[in-house]
Amino acid sequence: MTAADGRCVIRFKTRLKSIKVKVNYIGFAPLETTVRADASKTINLFLHEDIKQISEVTVVAQRKQTSVLQQTATIRQDALEKISSASLAKLLETVPGVSSISTGNTIAKPVIQGMHSSRILLLNDGVRLESQSWGEDHAPEIDYSGANMIEVVKGAESIRYGYGAMGGVVLLNQAALPYGHQHLKAGGTVNMGYDSNARGYNGTGTVEIGHKHVGLRLHGMYQKAGDYSTAEYT
């Protein structure tokens, strides 16, 4: 070790005639020399810069491909037709992780992983529906009979839909309009339902017309019911 100015004092013992001195400093080539006991009292040693050219450093890493589990459930049109008389909340109970809360036979809200109301986002063909967040007596005002498919999005995937989707998202998707036909094409469907309790009946109808670049769909629903009754009271 030397002082700040590089000086180093070496004291010879009487039996030594010479010693080897090796000097190292960062950025300079090491210097090794022999100092004799009968040499001058002051010896100047000069180090030379050690410049080394090295090639570029290449860092190679391997990334393990991972995929986010898609927590999305789909209810397709054939399943919708089988249970068309149920409310939306009751329909969604067929999806794992989804339940419902109700304040009556006709008022029910979907519950996705414990969250409901303003924490659940409802999108009907891209339109936000928020009436179910007003209070306990407000159920989703959706007639899903015209939907082609219903999707339930849960988990982290629901974040991309923005605010109001913390618990999940319910997507009601409509089928594409029937255009692109060279000749005029028309068709439609009619569904009828009846409830023995309350003597209620309902009907839905859809008419589609398509021709070349023009497509038209008309959908309507009618529902009527009397008072619900039990064995003891009405």
UniProtKB/TrEMBL annotation:
GO cellular component terms listed in the entry, alphabetical order: cell outer membrane
Gene Ontology biological process terms, A to Z: siderophore transmembrane transport
Query: How does this protein sit in the membrane?
Result: Multi-pass membrane protein
Q: Does the keyword Acyltransferase apply?
A: no
Q: Which domain of life is it from?
A: Bacteria
Which positions fall inside the TonB-dependent receptor plug domain? 66-169
Q: Give the matching PROSITE patterns.
A: TONB_DEPENDENT_REC_3 (PS52016)
Its primary localisation, in coarse terms, equals: membrane
| SUPFAM superfamilies named among the record's database cross-references | Porins
Q: Indicate yes or no for the key word Cell inner membrane.
A: no
Task: Spell out the PANTHER family in the cross-references.
Answer: HEMOGLOBIN AND HEMOGLOBIN-HAPTOGLOBIN-BINDING PROTEIN 1-RELATED, TONB-DEPENDENT OUTER MEMBRANE RECEPTOR
Q: What's this protein's name?
A: TonB-dependent receptor
Give the originating organism.
Answer: Bacteroides pyogenes JCM 6292
